[in-house]
Amino acid sequence: xxxxxxxxxxxxxxxxxxxxxxxxxxxxxxxxxxxxxxxxxxxxxxxxxxxxxxxxxxxxxxxxxxxxxxxxxxxxxxxxxxxxxxxxxxxxxxxxxxxxxxxxxxxxxxxxxxxxxxxxxxxxxxxxxxxxxxxxxxxxxxxxxxxxxxxxxxxxxxxxxxxxxxxxxxxxxxxxxxxxxxxxxxxxxxxxxxxxxxxxxxxxxxxxxxxxxxxxxxxxxxxxxxxxxxxxxxxxxxxxxxx
Length: 243
What we know:
The chain is α/β, with parallel strands linked by helices. It has helices at residues 6-18, 38-48, 62-68, 73-85, 101-106, 108-114, 128-139, 165-169, 206-217; strands at 23-27, 30-35, 57-59, 90-95, 119-124, 145-148, 173-174, 191-193, 198-201, 219-220, 240-241. Residues 237-243 have low confidence and may be disordered.
């Protein structure tokens, strides 16, 4: 007997977003919130108490990444290796095609608030539910943008019951699948700009991502200073690249 309904939950989540709502849902790297229009994202942004300098990420997949990101071949090889060969979660940052139907459907103002200097972060490979939501997103040209389901500065939530009331109150749907896979990391996804190889955020599975990029691509990422030194994972550490 199935304990969760991936297809049904993905359908409900995307339908809520299509109706202009906010959905809170589980990923392997913690609970997240998503919307697909300026009004929904602004409501979620305000509930989080998020600073204006923070950007939303696009929920995606390798298919969405291939169509939307405009990256060099080597960068795409690294991302495919992480996702396909090593089954690792990643938020990949890079230049994007603003004329692609998915980002264009978000609307100019919301897209501007979700991108920086012509780059877009796409979250991928963070669980079966997110992958099915991403499949529906691409098939139905419904953008899904968002960030972690928590008050800013309070850390990623790996159980739905730990999501603060302020965040729950802004949501039209909360999907609860229990404790998330990478809860021991206590961080969300690792974010890397794959055109500069700059680590923007150290997150779940960082040491595994380091190993893959070092072993197969001769790219050496900065060391993780640890949770005590960098509890949120955010960093602008200079990259170290050996070619």
